[in-house]
């Protein structure tokens, strides 16, 4: 399917690896010009080289840190210089450290709230007037299946990502008549470096092997396997498409049927 977004301009946050890198590649495959961001210049450059070698949408990158007080202005300037404007904003952030609710000390909570919630909302607000004025835009925010069914030992992630659910739904309602959509895409168990890290942490916490932790997690997934970055990225890219114009305020699960709620 042609998503009819060739020539559009997209910003994909936290795209040096994993889900962000996958989304950037999927959009570029549709002919979208993408700007990647993150804290690893070598990985960002390599991702851009791979995208540009395929010869569809062009890719560039900018170093940025979501926790930096100048994050929004840095990104705004880069978008202006490298893309000349914006049509698609993909909000993506790295996950916080594992832990229980008792581990959510004030300082740690404030630190991650800034990078995972405040920076996302502030950046979206910075680009929103131009998106509304041009009468077309896509805002896609990556969260976690933990906002549907809280994940054990990820209390900080469950809490902060859930805050974005309320924000996204409110935003989508407010801007629905402008031609700008706002949706969230929720990964379940997608095979990324993050999953490797979490499986290792759970193995240590439970005194089990990583292999046993992985096998138990797969057993709980009706699809019987972990998802791939490409599968997840394709779902996110669809929400950016012309065909998705009437989809807004939604939570799209990409979890192999793992969440048990309706």
From TrEMBL:
EC numbers for this chain: 1.1.1.100
GO molecular function: 3-oxoacyl-[acyl-carrier-protein] reductase (NADPH) activity
Keyword Zinc: no
Membrane-spanning intervals of the chain: none
Keyword annotations: Oxidoreductase
Class in the EC hierarchy, top level: oxidoreductase
Protein family per UniProt: Belongs to the short-chain dehydrogenases/reductases (SDR) family.
PANTHER family referenced in this protein's UniProt entry, alphabetically: 3-OXOACYL-(ACYL-CARRIER-PROTEIN) REDUCTASE (PTHR42879), NADPH-DEPENDENT REDUCTASE BACG (PTHR42879:SF6)
UniProt protein name: 3-oxoacyl-[acyl-carrier protein] reductase
Organism this protein belongs to: Allorhizobium borbori
């Amino acid at each position: 399917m042609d998503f009819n977004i060739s020539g559009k301009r997209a910003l994909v946050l936290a795209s040096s690896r994993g889900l962000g890198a996958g989304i950037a590649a999927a959009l570029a495959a549709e002919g979208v010009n993408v700007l990647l961001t993150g804290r690893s210049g070598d990985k960002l450059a390599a991702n851009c080289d791979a995208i540009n070698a395929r010869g569809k949408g062009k890719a560039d990158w900018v170093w940025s840190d979501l926790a930096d007080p100048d994050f929004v202005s840095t990104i705004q300037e880069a978008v202006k210089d490298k893309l000349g404007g914006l049509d698609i904003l993909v909000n993506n952030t790295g996950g916080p450290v594992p832990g229980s609710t008792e581990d959510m000390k004030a300082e740690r909570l404030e630190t991650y709230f800034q990078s995972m919630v405040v920076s996302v909302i502030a950046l979206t607000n910075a680009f929103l007037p131009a998106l509304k004025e041009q009468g077309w835009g896509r805002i896609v925010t990556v969260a976690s299946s933990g906002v549907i069914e809280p994940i054990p030992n990820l209390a900080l992630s469950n809490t902060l990502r859930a805050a974005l659910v309320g924000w996204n739904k409110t935003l989508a309602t407010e801007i629905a008549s402008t031609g700008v959509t706002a949706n969230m895409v929720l990964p379940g168990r997608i095979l990324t470096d993050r999953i490797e890290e979490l499986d290792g942490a759970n193995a240590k916490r439970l005194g089990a092997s990583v292999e046993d932790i992985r096998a138990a997690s797969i057993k709980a997934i009706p699809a019987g396997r972990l998802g791939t970055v490409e599968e997840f990225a394709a779902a996110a890219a669809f929400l950016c498409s012309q065909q998705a114009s009437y989809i807004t305020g939604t939570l799209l699960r990409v979890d192999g049927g793992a969440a048990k709620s309706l």
